[in-house]
Write a sequence for this structure.
């Protein structure tokens, strides 16, 4: 497993929040692929230093950027969209429910990623939980990319996009210029 090839490419800036959310989706899919490869790597080669470091990277990403991404959507994007089109409520509630399901699966996965002895002792469980997490993320992102973000691109005004970008930057402690 070559960790350099697993580094995601740079993303759009906060001045383009919908593009940034799309880029976040790409990074989530990237880290999901890393998670799949991690399970395969451990099965073949045991939990070596490279696998341990990869587990830490996956943990760090989903514990920070992944969490921020859900907050960006639920706290900032979804309310803006509802102001324009209340008919989106069903879709937004479904997406929020999927976030809760992902959070629940993540709660099962976290301890395994943090403790290499737990992965080795529960490799089948790790693989099963990882698979659920990856598949649900892929389905969820497909819906957001196909249904949510195209509607957001049409509905949000320039002022709302600027506000969304500012809120996303603030959440991460990054100055917005």
């Amino acid at each position: 497993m070559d960790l350099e090839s697993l580094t995601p490419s740079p993303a759009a800036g906060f001045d383009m929040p919908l593009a940034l959310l799309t880029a976040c989706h790409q990074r989530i899919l990237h880290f999901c692929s890393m998670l799949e490869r991690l399970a395969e790597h451990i099965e073949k080669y045991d939990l070596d230093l490279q696998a341990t470091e990869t587990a830490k990277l996956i943990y760090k990403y989903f514990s920070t950027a992944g969490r921020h991404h859900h907050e960006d959507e639920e706290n900032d994007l979804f309310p803006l969209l509802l102001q324009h089109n209340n008919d989106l409520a069903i879709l937004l509630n479904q997406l929020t429910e999927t976030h809760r399901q992902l959070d629940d699966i993540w709660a099962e996965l976290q301890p395994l990623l943090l403790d290499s002895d737990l992965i080795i002792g529960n490799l089948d469980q790790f693989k099963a939980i990882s698979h659920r997490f990856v598949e649900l993320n892929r389905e969820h992102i497909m819906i957001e990319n196909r249904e949510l973000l195209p509607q957001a691109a049409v509905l949000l005004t320039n002022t709302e996009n600027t506000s969304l970008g500012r809120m996303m930057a603030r959440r991460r402690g990054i100055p917005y210029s």
User: Anything to note?
Assistant: The chain has one domain: 13-171. The longest helix spans residues 123-155. Confidence is low (pLDDT under 50) at residues 1-9. The chain is about 80% helix and 0% strand.
